[in-house]
Amino acid sequence: MDYVVALPAAGSGKRMGAGKNKLFLTLANKPILIHTLEVFERDPHCTGIFLAVKQEEREYIQSLLNEYIITKVKGLPNGGKERQHSVHACLKVMEDAEIVLVHDAARPFITHSVIRRLVKTAYEKGAAVAGVRAKDTMKKVKNGIIVETVNRDDLWSIQTPQAFRFELLRQAEEDAERTGFLGTDEAMLVERLGHEIHIVESSYENIKITTKEDLIFGEAIIKHRQLNNESNLTNLMDS
């Protein structure tokens, strides 16, 4: 099933401390942004990419799209102060969309298999998010003191993409704008409408590049995947 994707890319990346948009930093000699865009560029079910950007970075981003032959970008609307505003800006320039994904531009390791399950679930149920089960012991803390050990069996770390029927997400975004509500993710906006959000299990490799340490993890993931691809190719040649 086909879909379009919104990528908010107008953040400041302060936690990275790079002095520029972290999406322009490189992994394996390629900008993080391009790694992410290529996932959707190579997916035949993705019919359009909408990238919310800063006005002053638009020309440079367009040059990257040209250099790396990213052809599916259908819109480059101005991003807003908050992620929510950037996603809404993307929705306003979309046409004829049925399923829309919202994805962190700094999360370059999402796989096509997870995307397919998200799209299928969103089509059938209305809303779905990628996530992984909590691995660590979870504690509730108040004023620096542990007050409760939380049962982690019911806890998930939520990632992106988050997938929705277009009209449902647009309604949630418009309601949030009208009431002045600011959510932490799109699922939270849809939850406010009383709609169920379904979880699709993802991979722990689907990290968001946020800090300098994440760059190290990202390089390791790329090397690991390259070794797996080489091994699979060798096995095919030997069979």
CATH superfamily grouping: Spore Coat Polysaccharide Biosynthesis Protein SpsA, Chain A
Number of strands: 11
Kindly, what is the distance between the CA atoms of the first and last residues, rounded to a whole number of angstroms?
33 Å
The radius of gyration is 19 Å
Can you walk through the features of this model?
- The protein is built from seven helices and eleven strands.
- By secondary structure, the protein is α/β, with parallel strands linked by helices.
- Strands 5-4-1-6-10-7-11 form a seven-stranded mixed beta sheet, sandwiched between helices.
- The chain starts with a strand and ends with a helix.
- The mean pLDDT is about 95.
- GO terms for molecular function: 2-C-methyl-D-erythritol 4-phosphate cytidylyltransferase activity.
- Belongs to the IspD/TarI cytidylyltransferase family. IspD subfamily.
Task: Please summarize what this structure is.
With 239 residues, the chain is α/β, with parallel strands linked by helices. It is 38% helix and 23% strand.
